[in-house]
Amino acid sequence: MSTTQTLDGHARAPTDPLARSAEEWVEAFTRGWHAPGGPQAFASHFREMLAEDVRLIQPQLPAIVGRRAFEEEFVRPLFALMPDVNGEVQRWAARGEELFIEMTLHGTLGGRRLSWRVCDRVTLRDGVAVERESYFDSLPLLAAVLRAPRAWPRYLRMQARQVIPKIAKGRKK
Q1: What's the pLDDT score for residue 2?
Q2: What is the DSSP letter of 72?
Q3: What is the DSSP pairing of strand 61-65 with strand 128-135?
Q4: Helix 17-34 and helix 39-47: axis angle, to 10°?
Q5: Which own/partner contact pairs does 110-115 have at CB distance under 8 Å and 24+ positions apart?
Q6: pLDDT tens-digit profile of 155-168?
Q7: Among candidates 12, 18, 43, 46, which has minimal Cα distance to 126?
Q8: Is the pTM of this model over 0.90?
Q9: Domains in the chain and their CATH numbers?
């Protein structure tokens, strides 16, 4: 599952503090996604792994900045849409303080099981994430929402929570 090999193919010695820090971070990331235990437990698990001003970038949502926004704008809506969401890390690599983590997310949306592949690029500073950019094809997720009318209200609320504040900020300028 884990490796201390860099993206350019060079192996890192296990005593290298940067490699050890990256491996420890990925191990904690893996534990957090494996059995999240609900939104509060998930947020609590990741809280100390994220910088206070962490920047989170993902498809279908505007960038999220800060631990509080992580909980309110990412964790709560995600678990409202898919209460049983979890993930399994397939592999990861590190280059300096940049991590690349490939995983599969699983959950139930509108009564149907759903899985999709994700690759997260995480930038660490002093052992905590200062930025996470997630890459995935959002089409399977959107298709699952469309096939599950029970999920429409939750999905629309999630999108509205993201879009309406941005529109309001634009009008104030």
Answers
A1: 40
A2: I
A3: unpaired
A4: 170
A5: 110/144, 110/145, 110/147, 110/148, 110/149, 110/150, 110/151, 111/148, 111/150, 112/144, 112/147, 112/148, 114/82, 114/140, 114/141, 114/144
A6: 666 656 555 555 55
A7: 18
A8: no
A9: 17-172 (3.10.450.50)
Q: What is the pLDDT of residues 75-116, one digit of tens each?
A: 998 998 899 999 999 999 999 999 999 999 999 987 889 999
Q: Which uninterrupted H or E stretch holds 46?
A: helix 39-47
Cβ atoms of 30 and 89 within 8 Å: the answer is: yes
Sign of the C-alpha dihedral computed for residues 2, 21, 35 and 120 taken in this order: negative
How is residue 43 written in tokens? 């947020």
Residues 6+ apart with CB under 8 A from 124: 21, 22, 25, 97, 98, 99, 130
Token pair belonging to 90: 């397939």
Do residues 114 and 144 touch, judged by C-beta distance below 8 A?
Answer: yes
Best CA proximity match to 14, nearest among 26, 24, 22, 4: 4
Phi-psi sector, 37: left (phi>0), alpha (psi -120 to 50), beta? left
